[in-house]
Specification:
The chain has 671 residues and is α/β, with parallel strands linked by helices. Helix content is 48%, strand content 13%.
Length: 671
């Protein structure tokens, strides 16, 4: 028999070798959660539990594969018979075996998101008098999905959306949801949400299947339990009800996905739901140096409604986390590049470093500066700022203002109007003689007269954008060009095409783009020339085998780690976000900040700009984030840049030969 006490620390060993009964393992960041689960599987197998009677539920197939592969190294091939996988994959497997009890054939089809939206779109067209005035299929599909995951009626969820999106008719959307459900039945199909809903319904309604599965699964292990929604928690509760051998592993401090259905109440109330529950806390951190953990502990010290935990360092290290108080976003991006190059000169690879931001738009200046200075980077989303659809749309408008003969920009721009396809756009271009100068009233009138019935009602607003651009260009108000375009036309397009959160995120990108243009040193034409160059430099950026700095939102970075982590925009209204503060969601913002901090193994740099630029070129002061203010001065090294940064041209590119230029402004270091 394996002596697990020689392989695990005391807390890990206590969790892995626990006897029967419910157990909650509170695995703080970097404390060996996966290692504990792997050895729990090995322990159960050595106790004689048949592998096929163990259920291991995860949130990604990658996590499930990793655990099984590691468990095989400990226990051998017997592990392969374990029921393991994501909630959706396990539910699909059960439904193929036993779904006939609720009327499904074993060969039911699983439809993906695209198929779902296509079906919903077809139903909208056949059910609504004016589909173009009805919420888009993506929004309706999202409402249906939220209702399924929250176990609420579609009408209830749709009513909630009425405050966020124009044109929501809760009763009509409920009717469409009913037709969508019937259509899936006709096709013998389920969407991803149905896998959870129907598996749970099967357990609730078919006593024979429920009792058989409850008897079969002797032990149930759930990874990342803080990310479960109501359906998933109820599903596991029912399966484990007979033997009561359920191990929930997670960290309430890292519950950051409530926006997609995670319910922190599931982990917080687990001991109440399971009488006699044993709680084991994993607090020994193997990832980060003491200074990083000191900051992480302070961040969560006063968080409301939590399981008290304190990260305890195993590693040694004297480097303190650094707060860089810089003048503005431009200074932040320059200092970020300097930090990356300095860390590289100390022996770190680019791939050992990450820049983690709260929202995607906060990375725009950093992306541009890193590209200018030839610092190789990859973006976890795989899409750079100038590769995104909404950015390309705005740039097409700007390029057309600068160059009326730019055919590609015209074709993209005019295709934004409803009912204008590629063939129509090409025809308009030819009729205009291969030139469109929207600053000229005659040209605007000529194009407007060509448009079809769908596009014509929107043309006055678009025409007004071009008309206003004349005075904006003359006054050098380049950022306002983008703001006008969004206010007069493009914001409505985004809101009609995307669900509210996504539309708002894209508008944030556009606002930041406007700020960048307003502050561009070489004017609008120079900015567009830079964009063309930077886009070309982006080729091959996401090559997985190349040595590149990672740029990522905090949400996408969860579960990962880097030697060096930079967190930009640790400023009020940015991190925590202004919207979250207004909506009273600061507790979740605190958890997101905690996750960002605990990704760092060796070095942590947090930037706090003192000024924020506006699309009109103006600036306003911003305070440091409340999360920074809470950290005692003795835990940080503070670096102040107290003057506006010099021009980009005064800095050379990166690479191994990079030498940090002597600043032309004052710096202050203090402990």
């Amino acid at each position: 028999m394996t002596d697990f006490s020689t392989l695990l620390n005391p807390e890990q060993c206590a969790a892995a070798t626990a006897g029967d009964g419910p157990i909650l393992v509170l695995a703080a960041a970097g404390t060996g959660k996966t290692r504990t689960l792997v050895h729990r599987v090995a322990f159960l197998l050595e106790r004689g539990i048949p592998a096929e009677r163990i259920l291991l539920l995860t949130f990604t197939n990658r996590a499930a594969r990793e655990m099984i592969e590691r468990a095989e190294c400990v226990s051998g091939g017997a592990v392969s018979a374990i029921w393991s996988g994501t909630f959706h994959s396990v539910c699909a497997r059960l439904l193929r075996r036993y779904g006939s009890s609720i009327g499904y054939r074993p060969d039911f089809r699983i439809i993906d998101d695209d198929d779902q939206k296509k079906l919903v779109g077809e139903i909208i067209k056949s059910s609504v008098d004016n589909p173009k005035d009805f919420p888009k299929k993506e929004i309706v599909a999202k409402i249906i999905s939220e209702a399924a995951n929250e176990s609420r009626s579609v009408e209830t969820v749709a009513s909630r959306w009425q405050t966020k999106t124009a044109g929501i008719d809760a009763d009509k959307i409920g009717e469409i949801a009913g037709k969508y459900a019937l259509r899936k039945r006709e096709l013998g199909a389920m969407d991803f949400d149905d896998l959870l809903v129907n598996a749970l319904a099967m357990l609730k309604t078919d006593g024979r299947v429920r009792e058989m599965l409850q008897e079969h699964f002797l032990h149930i292990l759930v990874d990342e339990y803080q990310d479960t929604n109501g359906l998933q928690a109820e599903f596991t509760d029912i399966l484990a009800a007979k033997h009561r051998n359920i191990m929930a592993v997670g960290d309430d401090f890292q519950c950051i996905y409530t926006w997609r259905g995670a319910q922190i109440e599931n982990i917080m109330e687990f001991p109440k739901r399971w009488s006699g529950c044993r709680i084991v806390k994993l607090e020994r951190n193997y990832r980060s140096v003491p200074g990083v953990l000191d900051v992480a502990n302070v961040v969560m010290r006063d968080a409301a409604g939590q399981f008290e935990k304190r990260l305890r360092p195993i590693r040694s290290g004297e480097d303190m986390p650094v707060v860089c108080k810089v003048y503005d976003s431009k200074a932040q991006s320059l200092e970020t590049v300097k930090t990356i190059c300095e860390m590289r000169s100390r022996g770190y690879r680019y791939g050992d470093m990450a820049v983690l931001y709260r929202s995607h738009y906060q990375s725009i200046d950093i992306q541009m500066t890193m590209a200018r200075m030839k610092i190789p980077f990859r973006i976890t989303s795989g899409v750079g700022v100038f590769e995104q659809i909404h950015t390309k749309d705005v740039l097409a408008y700007l390029r057309l203002l600068v160059d009326p003969c730019d055919e590609l920009s015209f074709l993209r721009f005019v295709s934004l109007l409803p009912g204008v396809g590629a063939a129509s756009a090409k025809k308009y271009w030819q009729k205009l003689g291969g030139r469109f100068d929207g600053k000229l009233a005659a040209q605007r009138e000529q194009l407007g007269s060509m448009l079809g019935a769908k596009a014509r009602p929107l043309w006055p607003a678009v025409s007004k954008c071009f008309e206003t651009a004349v005075s904006r260009l003359a006054a050098g108000e380049n950022g306002a060009l983008v703001a006008d375009f969004a206010d007069m036309f493009y914001a409505d397009r985004l809101e009609s095409a995307w669900e509210p959160e996504e539309a708002e995120s894209r508008l944030d990108d556009i606002k930041e783009l406007a700020s960048q243009i307003a502050g561009a040193e070489n004017g609008l034409e120079g900015f567009l020339a830079d964009v063309a160059l930077l886009t070309n430099l982006d080729i091959g950026r996401n090559d997985p085998d190349s040595d590149r700095v990672t740029l990522s939102t905090v949400h996408q970075a969860k579960g990962m780690e880097w030697a060096v982590v930079v967190i930009p925009w640790c400023s009020a209204g940015m991190f925590p976000s202004q919207k979250a503060e207004e909506e009273g969601r600061q507790d979740e913002e605190r958890r997101i900040f905690y996750v960002a901090v605990t990704r760092a193994k060796d070095r942590l740099f947090m930037f706090s700009p003192m000024m924020r630029k506006m699309p009109d070129g103006g600036i306003f002061p911003v305070d440091p984030s409340v999360f920074l203010k809470e950290i005692p001065a003795g835990l940080l090294k503070v670096y102040r840049v107290v003057a506006p940064p010099p021009a980009y041209s005064s800095f050379s590119g990166g690479g191994s030969g990079y030498s940090r230029p002597k600043p032309t402004y004052r710096t202050i270091w203090r402990r």
